[in-house]
Amino acid sequence: MPCRTLIVTLTSAAALLAPGLSQAQVTLKADGQWRYLLTAGANVSSGNNDAAALNLAAEGARQTNDDKWTWDAKADHARSAGVATTDRYGLRTQYNRDISPDWFGFGSGETLSDELANISARYSVASGIGRHVWRDERGFFDVSAGLGYSYDWYVAPTDVAGAVREQYGRTELVLSEESSHRLTPTTNLRQKFTLYPNLRDSGKYRAVLDTGLTVEMTPTINLSAGLSYRYDSAPGNNLEKGDAMFVTGVSLRFD
To answer: pTM of this prediction?
Structure first.
């Protein structure tokens, strides 16, 4: 799939799916206080269908008039008939610092384990600049660009960049857009799309799309649903290029 086509497809999917899908989002308020959100979802079936799934997520955010620091952690595990169908764990953080009313600099770090995608461990760091397209009490829309470096360790050696490798590192571009919207007094929408063109192996790239919706039932309890999509143009032998996950759950907000 050409890179331009992928961008159009995924950003269109975000616009179409976001009203009904997505992940919970932590409260963002420019008062310098840390706020947290914990989300859990699970389902179990037995008899003719022997399956179970558990999804856990945690988020934290601290924002002032000049900077913002966020982190999130996720654990997703599912089994069907005794066989793992999902086994993904991730942690990421990002710090933004305004350098003018419209522009900001950022630094980020991420770690990921996804054994079914043959990723024993992935570590990524990035830094760059971004622009506040708009932001007010209803939310924000930011775009950013930078350089990053990612290093993968594989569960099993695989064909990457023309050779069979156990591990692989590369410099990447990091192109991102992110927005948050208060649709109603009790409904919040959030989405983020990031593209990672590989600068070591021209023409290869990764893409990540997350959309998020939170519906407040009480000041503390929220209903949430989530859609995430991961795409790798060269994932290795016998692996699908795209992975999608839809999760629903209940969130506890600590403001």
So the answer is: 0.84
